[in-house]
Amino acid sequence: MNIIKFMNTKGKQNIIIFLALVALIVIFTALNPNFINRYNILSMAQSLSPYAFLALGVTFVIATGGIDLSIGTVCIAAAVIAGKLYMSGMPLWMTIPVMLIIGIIFGIANGFMVAVLGLPPFIATLGTMMFARGVSALAVSVPNIFYPTGTWFNGVFSNYSGIPTGIFWVIGFMLICMYLMYKSKVGRYILSIGSNEEATRLSGINIVKYKILAYLFSGLGAGIAAIFWSASFTTVASATGNGMELDAIAGVYIGGTSATGGVASVGGSIIGSVLLVVIRSGLNFVLAKFNLNLNATYVTYVLTGVIVIVAVLMDVIKNKKIKSN
Question: How many domains does the chain fold into?
Fold first, then answer.
């Protein structure tokens, strides 16, 4: 009975988030009809893809009750290192496995430090965040890396004749993550660890293995995000990426994944990411329309902070109701 009530509450939260997204689109369109022109929709879709992959990957970590602060700098480090190799003569197609491997390596390293060495996830991933940022700068020795434009790389992973191809990849990866989270033992064990790690261990499940897998998925998400970031923006600055992880994690929390672990909403992570992209783009259009002397980025931070607090507060209230019942 408690499980049914819990699922109903979770479903209501996702519905609220979706309705909020629709309402924002309507409001921004009413204030500035250019918000829904074809070019802005394409721009938002291109911006969404990297953050969506980051959010999907880190959902597995948050489901265990952990956190991964390194995904933003790992994404950029992967793009920068692979781009440097490309500029040095490596075939363009080889940048794809290089970025994936770099993301996976960082993910496994995070999982090892958390699951085997017993470091707090915040400290372990904060360390790798700083490490990845430094490595990206030292490895390339130039401020910017340039990817080609108008090639198959851009068409496949970003924009093909005005069609945001990245969205199709996001949907495909989301379906894979849904299967892993809800239909496979990997997801069930990850959720079990987040719900009650000690009980999971006593039941004979190898929590070290599945914690490492959760961080591996997060690193993989960062590696995939690097591919789409490189294809969409072509110029990648080294020693950057700070802040990307916060947007991705915020999208996961907004989407209904519990901050304490044990509950994951894969679809909600996408909705939360879309919500943040819509807010960021919509504010730019509204502030420009009314000539308001405000920085849209900072206003976005304010709104995002409020939304995240409300989302986590809803999660806390939800958990209290479940325990009381």
Answer: 1
Which is nearest to 31 in space by CA: 309, 300, 281, 301? 281
Q: How do residues 23-46 score in pLDDT, each as one tens digit?
A: 999 999 999 999 999 899 999 999
CA distance 225 to 318: 32
Q: How far is CA 59 from the centre of its chain?
A: 8
SS3 content of the chain, % helix, strand, coil (to 5): 80, 0, 20
Q: How far apart are CA 105 and CA 78, in angstroms?
A: 10
pTM: 0.92
Kind and range of the H or E run holding 144: strand 144-146
Q: Tell whether 254 is covered by a domain.
A: yes
Whether residue 198 lies inside any domain: the answer is: yes
User: Cα dihedral sign for 223, 225, 226, 228?
Assistant: positive
DSSP code of residue 146? E
- The boundaries of the domain holding residue 141 are 43-324
Model confidence pLDDT, tens digit, residues 273-321: 999 999 999 998 888 888 777 777 788 888 888 888 888 887 777 777 6
Q: At 149, which CATH number?
A: 1.10.3470
Question: Are residues 221 and 244 in contact, defined by beta-carbon separation less than 8 angstroms?
Answer: no
